[in-house]
Amino acid sequence: MSEYRADSTTDDRHTRASDLVAYDNLSLRSPDDGRPLVTALSLSIPHGTRVLVVSGEEPPVAALFRATAGLWEAGDGRILRRPVIS
Description:
Blueprint: E1 3-5, E2 20-29, E3 36-46, H1 58-68, E4 75-80
Parallel strand pairs: 1-4
Antiparallel strand pairs: 2-3, 2-4
């Protein structure tokens, strides 16, 4: 599925990867029937940026939030985010 990692490399805007959430060609599928929920999402969100996620259905939004939290397995692509601190 997706590769969850936080590293200190820089992107094109010289923002540290640990200071953003980034989706790189992320595609998520329903674990029940395999239908696509999110397709080829590529997006970088700098730390502190407010984002509104809108969809006509709840499952794609829930899948995106669960994948970002590391709780979704059905899909491909990468999510870069800050490491979870215990």
